[in-house]
Amino acid sequence: MLDSVAQGYGRSTVLEAVSLTLRPGVTALLGPNGAGKTTLLRTLATIKPPRNGRIYVDDIQVTGEKSARDVRDRIGYLPQDFGFDPRMTVADFVTYAAWLRGVPATAWPDRVAEALQLVDLTDRRRSKMRSLSGGMRQRAGIAWAIVGRPSLVLLDEPTVGLDPRQRLQFRKIVSELRDTVVVLSTHLIDDVGAICDRVIVLHQGSPKFDGTVADLEALGEEGLPGHSRLERAYMHLLPAEEQLL
Ligand SMILES: Nc1ncnc2c1ncn2[C@@H]1O[C@H](COP(=O)(O)OP(=O)(O)OP(=O)(O)O)[C@@H](O)[C@H]1O
Fold it and tell me: What keywords does the record list, in alphabetical order (predicted)?
């Protein structure tokens, strides 16, 4: 949960007093480039302490580095361009994440197997990371994020660069995480319609809409630019000057 969280870089303010309570299910963070989606995810991931306001993960307030360390094991954060050693095998990559999240060594084999099964990479567990396609890498990234059985999963633009089939595979995996709080940032409105229970539209650092996909669709009147109700609804939420193509 975020309570009046402010965030920024140097003199610029990116998030201004954002308050959000996240619930189990898939929440999309939608917004134009520079809206603050990554900043919000990094703040929730306790990577960048907020300038103001309070953050709670599983009701634990993050007040500094010590409490941040305590809650990080409960968070699975997958940055947009996550790094990896290309020589590592898929299983080693996910095992490394298990170690980072404080999973006891005795549980590594089972947890890694469980995570790889969910993302359908069991057959590729001995493959080198460098040999994977973009979609497989992204799935390995999701395994990396979930191997610690986090209660909060944060995925930053997880479908960028994936082909249509890979995006469908991704959606299937995310749908299986429904009992967890999943937040994903995206520009892809199709993904929002297909898998998200809740949508937050962020614009210039503040939520302009927070509701269900159906609520958002209801805003998509004819006459606005867009090929679907969701696209039109998204355009409707932008300031008038940004609605022009
Ligand atoms: N490390 C940084 N240092 C300074 N400014 C930054 C930094 N990271 C982001 N910003 C600025 O903060 C604002 C929000 O950026 P952020 O990356 O959170 O947006 P975003 O919604 O994720 O955008 P995108 O869709 O392009 O990924 C932008 O103006 C960006 O230039």
Answer: ATP-binding, Nucleotide-binding, Transport
List pLDDT tens digits, range 122-175.
Answer: 999 999 999 999 889 999 999 999 999 999 999 999 988 888 888 898 899 999
Residue 122 Cα, ligand 1 centroid: separation in angstroms? 35
Residue 220 domain-assigned (yes or no) = yes
Atom of ligand 1 nearest to the CA of 35: 21
Residues 224 and 214 in one domain: yes
Q: What CATH number is given to the structural domain containing 232?
A: 3.40.50.300
Whether residue 101 sits in one domain with residue 180 = no
Q: Which residues of 63-87 are buried (b: 16+ CB within 10 A; e: fewer)?
A: eeeebbeebbbbbbbbbeebebeee
Ligand 1 contacts CB of residue 36 (under 6 A): yes
Instruction: Write out pLDDT tens, residues 215-236.
Output: 999 998 887 888 889 999 999 8
Q: Is the CB of residue 207 less than 8 Å from the CB of residue 201?
A: yes
Q: How far apart are CA 57 and CA 61, in angstroms?
A: 7
Judge if pTM exceeds 0.90: yes
Residues spanned by the domain of 143: 83-149
Q: Are residues 10 and 66 in the same domain?
A: yes
Ligand 1 pocket check for 35: Cβ under 6 Å: yes
Give 170-198 pLDDT, tens digit per residue.
Answer: 899 999 898 899 999 998 888 898 899 99
How far is the centre of ligand 1, averaged over its atoms, from the C-alpha of 162 (Å)?
Answer: 22
**Same-domain pairing of 54 and 106:** no
**What is the DSSP secondary structure assignment for residue 31, as one 8-state letter?**
-
| Cβ of residue 13 lying under 6 Å from some atom of ligand 1 | no
Number of domains in the chain: 2
Ligand 1, atom 10, lies closest to the CA of 9
